[in-house]
Amino acid sequence: MLHGIAASPWTLALWVALMLPCLAIVVHDLATRNAHLMSLMKVVWVLTVLYSGPLGLGIYWLTGRKEIADDHLWRRSFRSVAHCYSGCGMGEILGVILAAGLLSLGTVWVSVVTFSLAYVFGYALTVGPLVQDGVPLRKALWEAFVAETPSITVMEVTAISVSLLIGGAAGLGDPLFWSALILSLSCGLLTAYPVNVALIHFGVKEGMMDPRDSHHGHGENGRQEHGADPQAGPA
Question: What is the rounded (10 degree) CA torsion for 177, 166, 84, 110?
Fold first, then answer.
């Protein structure tokens, strides 16, 4: 039954009809009410909503705005997983389109290519801000590896499995291909969330800072996610 629903072009049309207003809402809110957020987090939230529509908007609304009443582990964990998700999702989309859609590779190679691209994009999105924040490259590479590998692995194993299970041999011109990809992205987000809860709870990550305090600037946001300062060890 799920396969039949996913294969319908009306399902894809409904998704687009739901996602576009959500995207417009988050862009407007970021421009008018939460313009103080650092540029990276604005991109993170736009991509999260682009990938997951109403789910992404709900996560942003409850955890990523200055209007939140307070901040707790569950909110920090959603901001952290969204940060990971924005990069990994981009890599996954490119990987699935390239490996499954254009090259029609077998399941193993689709998985390898997609996972690799998702990991590289997610990893780079973590390393880049750390280096910009003054962390030595070698230290940034290690901190990002420790902090992001568990989350990326769980996210992408889930997402790739769902995409292959539902999409099967569907091509780029088949609505099933895109429906499976959309569903896989959100499944990856949800399964990686408890991993981020655990990583933050046990001090491996600190989580993205409280958006109510983000007027302090880009540097503090970067340090809050992965360490207290450039000279400190992993969070």
Answer: -70
